[in-house]
Design a protein that fits this description.
There is one protein chain. It contains 15 helices and 16 strands. The chain folds into 3 domains: 57 residues, no CATH class; 112 residues, Nuclear Transport Factor 2, Chain: A; 268 residues, no CATH class. The two termini are 41 Å apart. The longest helix has 25 residues. By secondary structure, it is an alpha+beta fold.
Amino acid sequence: MSDFSPLSIFKSQAKQHGRQHDMKLSAAQESLARQAGFEEYHELVVVAQRTPTDARLMLAAFGVRDFKDAIHEDDVFSELDQELEQALSRAMAETNTSQFSISDSKVESAAYNEATGALTLGISIPYERQQDPERVYYGRAFFLQAVTELIRRDGKWSLGKDGFSITSSESDIAANRRALITNETRNMYQKDHSPHEKPIEKLNEDGKRVKNPNEITVNQHVIPQAHLKQWLGGEDLLTVIDKSSGKALKRAPKNSFVVARLWDQPTEQGMIKTNEDNYQQQLTLLAETGSIARSPWITEYFVMLAARAYFAAKERPLYDSIMEPPSWAPSQAELEEDEVEQVHDTVRIYRGAGNPHATARTVVSMALTSFFIRGRVLIEDTVWVPFTTTGEKFILPDSNVALYEKRFLALPVSPELVLLDEKLLAGLQEAGQLTPEYLNKRFLESSVRYYVAPK
């Protein structure tokens, strides 16, 4: 049996699970098989031999139900973007623009090699950049056919040894071609800003290149993944509606409503993570007791959503300094170490004056913090109560900034549940507007470019 067949991978997972939980291998195999949706381990073995692409087996072994979906997993998109930038640097220099990014991609084919564990994907990629109106038009996009190799190690997909190769490339040089590339196919904010500073790479003890050794979070969610997943409806992809065109887009939560390293790591892994954890704790208690135990935590979550949406809509504050550069400045590696080490510090030391990217992240983080502190004080007396629907389901807007600014304190938790300020609930009830239809109307008004539709 090959080392990288679904069954071999599952057995390896069972061994690891057994070691972690002090279980016999057979017990670990039975436990994981049931978690995967099989009645017993024997059934999984039979299915693996007869139908190795069974959705349950695929999800257990590879984290996806279809190999084509692996392109949306983990940091694959970020790695692809780096490879494209290197491969097309000369061609991009001949255009009148820069800062290209993946607009949208389509996986045309997928082939998995059980002997090596390599997944080969044939993909079509529009690689584009908004046109500079001040310059003569020479081209602003490339339409690529490419082959990329992915591998899955330690439960994560990444580019393999052979990485990425372009099989054909066509430059966009005609106005009618330009009209075919539309903003609604963008990857939900991820590439709307100027390029982010990519995490460092270094060589390990074996001389192999290690990407992002400090595990810096590159794709930062404007709307948390856990929140988005409430709208999956048992499927793998969200249905995201472009507000202007009405077009439905399919996106994985991992790649929806994200920005690329807009704020720093202490903000992402410290303040924002704590904020999200507190919110999830309250939802757990709500499910058990039917009420919100700590309304301030819901208030803080509501305000933080507004803060993230507000600053995600602005440009990255990446500007050249008007001051003399310092005589000495820490390296990018040292600044990354600072970010990681200060994740849980209440008082932080900033040494990035000579690095415009570090400064930009710090500026956004300070602005987020200021918005958050002010906002939670302004609505600190809010008492949140649940309102459920058995009729029309709730949408999730891409921004709640308008709701916050107009003090319409309503938070869609899931397609069936909204949390409301108890005063707002009473007012809506008195006005005869306490209906899913009216709430969705307000959510739609608050959305800027997209909203997530219920299934």
